[in-house]
Every structure is written in structure tokens, then in C-alpha cells.
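testing teh design pipeline on a random one, pls ignore if ur not involved
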């Protein structure tokens, strides 16, 4: 049975859809779930065997994902 890892991420809320579309283009690489759209919080789930590839994709996309919003008071 395949083991999956979970990776929480924060990004600019208006870039959540961008990441989702990119990940969908990499068939069976990873799945994205939105945890809190207003705060730009998502969770990426991926097979442990694909960790190196997932982290490489996320690293290359990081400039395009924007800064997470400042903490809300």
C-alpha cells in the first residue's frame, strides 16, 4: 500500500488556484486541498516515493506563489 505525506503551505490567497492547476498537470504527483482560502492555507498530499519531485516542483514555483498574508489580529 502506498504511504502518503502531508505538507501544509501558506501562500498568497489569490495564487491558490494557480498551484492547483499546476499540480493537476502533473498526473498523480500530488493533490491539493484548500484549508483556509482567506489566509492562503493549503495542504499538499503526495506519495512518499514522489517526495523529491514534489519538493522540486514546489521550490521552482515558490516565487510565483506570492507571500502569505500577514497574521490577522
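output:
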Amino acid at each position: 500500500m502506498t504511504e502518503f505525506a502531508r505538507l501544509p503551505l501558506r501562500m498568497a490567497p489569490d495564487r491558490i488556484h494557480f498551484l492547483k492547476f499546476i499540480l493537476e498537470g502533473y498526473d498523480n504527483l500530488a493533490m491539493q486541498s484548500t484549508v483556509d482560502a482567506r489566509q492562503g492555507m493549503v495542504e499538499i498530499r503526495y506519495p512518499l516515493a514522489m517526495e523529491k519531485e514534489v519538493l522540486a516542483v514546489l521550490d521552482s514555483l515558490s516565487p510565483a506563489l506570492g507571500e502569505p498574508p500577514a497574521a490577522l489580529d
